[in-house]
Amino acid sequence: MNEHVLQTNGLTKKFKHSFALDKVDMSIRKGSIYGFIGQNGAGKSTLIRIVTGLAFPSGGTVELFGQSSQRELVATRKRIGSIIEGPALFPNMTAVDNLEAHRLMRGIPGKDCVARTLRFVGLQDTGKKTAKNFSLGMKQRLGLAIALLGDPEFLILDEPTNGLDPMGVVEMRELLKKLNRERGITILISSHILSELHLLATHYGIIHHGQLLEQLTTKELNDKCQQYLHIKVNDPGRAATVIENKLGTTEYEVVSSGIMKLYKHLDQPGKVSTLLASEGLVIEEFMPMGEDLESFFTKRIGGVRHG
Ligand SMILES: Nc1ncnc2c1ncn2[C@@H]1O[C@H](COP(=O)(O)OP(=O)(O)OP(=O)(O)O)[C@@H](O)[C@H]1O
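^ thats the input. predicted complex w/ adenosine-5'-triphosphate below
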């Protein structure tokens, strides 16, 4: 069995004077939630459009569920649900009529999936209200319901939280988590805000100027962004004993050349330094370190953080 739902090899898209995608090798494992992060214009939509068959690449290949020929790709794309460039809604129709229209257009048998899917996204009680009168969050949930018709195994969402208020972001996140957890659906979700993906994604791909700079797991991202007290002392062995005995924690690491990383008591740096000094240790360096998510991202793409 192929473990990857999506694999692109050297995927390239050239518009007149520039590369929207430049030899992208992306891998998305079955069962994962892949956060695709990049600034506006980085190339996210271009990749998503190619994967879903809305655009053709200039070079490279797309492999979906282990299949890569044009004929097989057409068939495997039926296993994908997507929201691209906003949800595909009929503004003058109710939620039920929207789903029913999409069900008929796509030839999905059985009416009962309409009520079931609306219940799943929490829109079962919207009655006669038409989609144009829905809040943005409701529109996005209706878009998700449309994408879920046909029980896809792979869900592709292009900036689904763009413009949503914080509650809308939380609602969408919880729905996606549930789909992943309960139905094992693999998800590719793009955003230009890393913190919006952070409580959701299990894997990340960072794209910048059409190049996939890095793919990493949540654990790798957390390790890179973890906050700690950087301490350089003359005797790290003794400092470790003091930290364990007097501060009651083992959440520290001794790294090279007498440098320690203490992951606890970040809010009490004075207490830590006073304690070490009172035990006769010579403190050569002492400072809080680590990065927050957005500064990790801006640094990674070579930018300067503003604000
Ligand atoms: N049809 C097109 N013709 C010419 N250039 C295009 C076309 N579509 C996209 N581009 C360019 O390709 C680059 C990548 O665009 P893309 O829409 O994929 O970025 P994105 O990461 O999805 O950003 P956004 O969040 O703004 O949609 C941009 O420089 C864009 O201007």
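The chain is about 35% helix and 25% strand.
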